Amino acid sequence: MQGARLKELAARISGARSVLLTTHFGPDGDGVGSTMALGEALEEHGISVTRLLPEPLPRRYRFLDPHSLTTHPAEAKERLGERRWDLGLVLDTHQWELLEDAAEWLRTRTAETVFLDHHPQAAAMRPEVYGDADAASTGELVYRLLHQSLGWSITASVAEALYIAISFDTNSFKHIRSNPASLAIAADLVTRGVDTNRVYRHLFGSNSPAKARLLGWVLSSVQFDCGGRLAWVCIPHRLVDELGLERDEMRDSITHILEIDGVEVAATLKEMELGKVQISLRSKGAFPISGVAAALGGGGHPMAAGCDLAGSCEKAWVRLGPLLVQLVEAVPDCRC
Ligand SMILES: [Mn+2]
Questions:
Q1: Is residue 188 part of a domain?
Q2: Are residues 194 and 220 in the same domain?
Q3: Around ion ligand 1, which residues have CB less than 5 A away?
Q4: Separation of 209 CA from ligand 1 center, angstroms?
Q5: pTM, whole model, 2 decimals?
Q6: 109-160 pLDDT tens trace
Q7: Ligand 1 midpoint to CA 242 (Å)
Q8: How many whole angstroms from 30 Cα to the centroid of ligand 1?
Q9: How far, in Å, CA of 62 to CA of 257, rounded?
Q10: 74-116 pLDDT, tens digit each
């Protein structure tokens, strides 16, 4: 994104007295880290901030919010009453449909809503979307907004939240898209006082025993197709229920499948609720999978995408499987 566009967003933000911040449903490290970083920086500069996530903050991010500043639609009426905001700012998505019940708050309680996101835009550009698909995380865009466009100094606590956003979306700097920006920004954040061991402990070293059991189940149930280049697994609702898993704990299974030698494309079909299957797709890079996600009504990046389908896992695979097989078989002798 051109610096001029970010400057324009900076002007909109600094012209507001109150801002309602949110991110997508299924809040992740990038969405939560960006929300907490920007929220704190705006408050330091006299802007009143409300952090409304579409659902309760997942367990592993609670260390970022020791004073329970975040709220969610189920309790927001009680906490926020009839409040209204000058500006609604959505981080890490540009799609209204990914905001679930938070969308209503933005539509009815803010004077205007803008988006800051790094996901590719499928449809025509919208003026209220500040997007940069070259950025490896929204955290990177928030850093540029604060540091370059607003010219604010970044405190150690804001730096930690930004570092979490960037390290989450790059999977600990494994996926930087050959773009040194993530590394350069992370280096700057560390010099500002980020305790990287504390981040590791909370973000990557805090799996619950139930999540460990899930990973064991996933890795022993994985199925292969296309000579081992496609790997997939269905996680049935029965298992989610039995282990008492929260949605965020289902997230990393796919990474472990993709890490198997020879696997180029991985898919997980997660039956979080009965009758609703959440599909995640990942690619090592030889086969862009965002087209498959888009064909089923979803979206994402070439290497990480997803979509939701109604019905059972088995029914969802009947629709998804052939598309993935076709994609992978199109290049039969790929020397990846
Ligand atoms: Mn992101």
A1: yes
A2: no
A3: 30, 92, 138, 169
A4: 27
A5: 0.90
A6: 999 999 999 998 877 789 999 999 999 999 999 999 999 999 999 999 999 9
A7: 30
A8: 5
A9: 27
A10: 999 999 999 999 999 999 999 999 999 999 999 999 999 999 9
